[in-house]
Amino acid sequence: MEIGYGIVGTGMIAKTHIIALKTLNLVYDNLEVKPKFNWVCTRSKENKFEDFKYSTKDIEDIINDSNTKIIDICTPNFMHYDQGKKVILADKNLYMEKPSAKDINDAKELAELSEKSKIVNQTALMFRFIPAVVLAKDYIDEGNLGEILNFRIKYFHKSYLNSERPMSWRLEKEASGGGALVDLGIHMVDLVRFLMGEVKDVHAKTSIHVKERYKDSSKKEKVKSEVDEWALLDLNLINGGYGTLEVSRISSDLDEDVSIEIYGTKGKVEISTKNPNYPEIFLHEKGILIKGELERKSEFSKYHKTIYPSSRVDLGWFMNAHMASLVNFLLNVQEGKIVYKETPTLMEAYKSQKIIDMAYKSENEGRRINID
């Protein structure tokens, strides 16, 4: 079954999606649903991706094409709301990069519209599809960790450590909505909710190390930096657990990795993108360290094993997770509904973004903020 596919945007994340989609035929032997590359939308109207049949600079051309059933939005954050709303109102299935909107009220509107519509929708919160995360969720949900006591999460990048790097839309608050906390933090907050439950309140600190950056690539004029390069969240969970979440886009470490440590009354679960296939589990009472495949209990976990690329066609955890996320979306489109509640819909993305929004409010007001 081929489904007409259109992509909006031609930047790095659009290329990531396309690499994943083009590789499906090589990775999955029995995948019945496949994308048919119809449209690419770019500001220049130039067709940068030869696999797509048509190119345009107007998203309306894609929306009005009856043969295109899926629209994948990979544009800068400030464009997501208008484009996403048009897609939903046109009853086109929507795959969208995070965050679903720059403004939290717009994100809420899109989430509510998507819930009322008949479309299949999903955001690219692809960390939910990393095997170690899925196995850890099963383990925690089964009560094997006991009562969650505390957690520690970090996600570090080095992308903006270079002070010579000029401004871009990601560094402009009006275009991006925020810095490291929006870009990286939303993934980690989403994993807090996915693995441990809803957040009760948040206290946040953020900072900017490079106070001024070049306005553009000409490097003739500098302007004030606008968005956070580092952020630390102190989170309390509704279920009583608590912990910290730290993100940075100015890390000087060798690796750009994710580390998640969750401590319960029965032991510890650790997840790292250095070993994305399995969580590391410590059994407190027995003094035993477990590392390897776990028995899959939930239906989602069993299903996930069928959509995540095998080790024989490993493209790295980042691309593998994007691929599994996109396959999940395509299969949902084939079914005409969201099959598994673990799917990161626009509503799920809104709930995670709300915590980010409250974190910025906490920083601005210098106090702990409840998540209403």
Describe this protein's structure.
There is one protein chain. The protein is an alpha/beta fold and 372 residues long. 34% of the residues lie in helices and 26% in strands. The protein contains ten helices and 17 strands. It has a nine-stranded mixed sheet. A six-stranded parallel sheet has the order 3-2-1-4-5-6, with helices on both faces. Helix 3 (77-89) packs parallel to helix 4 and helix 5 packs antiparallel against helix 8. It is globular. The mean pLDDT is 95.
Provide keyphrases for this structure.
372 residues, alpha/beta, 9-stranded mixed sheet, 6-stranded parallel sheet, 17 strands, globular
Distance between the termini: 43 Å
Low-confidence stretches: none
Spatial order of the strands forming the largest sheet: 16-15-14-13-7-12-11-8-17
Gyration radius, to the nearest Å? Answer: 20 Å
Query: Which structural class is indicated by helix and strand composition?
Result: alpha/beta
Count of runs of 4 or more consecutive helical residues: 10
For the sheet with most strands, the description reads: 9 strands, mixed
Q: How many strand units?
A: 17
Task: Note the beta-strand portion.
Answer: 25-35%
In helices, the fraction of residues equals: 25-40%
Sum up the overall morphology in one term.
Answer: globular
The helix/strand order is: EHEEHEHEHEHEHHEEEEEEEEEHHHE
| Arithmetic mean pLDDT | 95
What's the layout of helices and strands?
Blueprint: E1 2-8, H1 12-27, E2 34-41, E3 54-56, H2 59-63, E4 70-73, H3 77-89, E5 93-96, H4 104-116, E6 121-123, H5 131-141, E7 148-156, H6 173-176, H7 180-196, E8 199-207, E9 212-214, E10 222-224, E11 230-237, E12 242-248, E13 258-264, E14 267-272, E15 275-283, E16 288-291, H8 299-307, H9 317-335, H10 346-365, E17 369-370
Helix pairs in contact: 1-9, 3-4, 4-10, 5-7, 5-8, 7-10
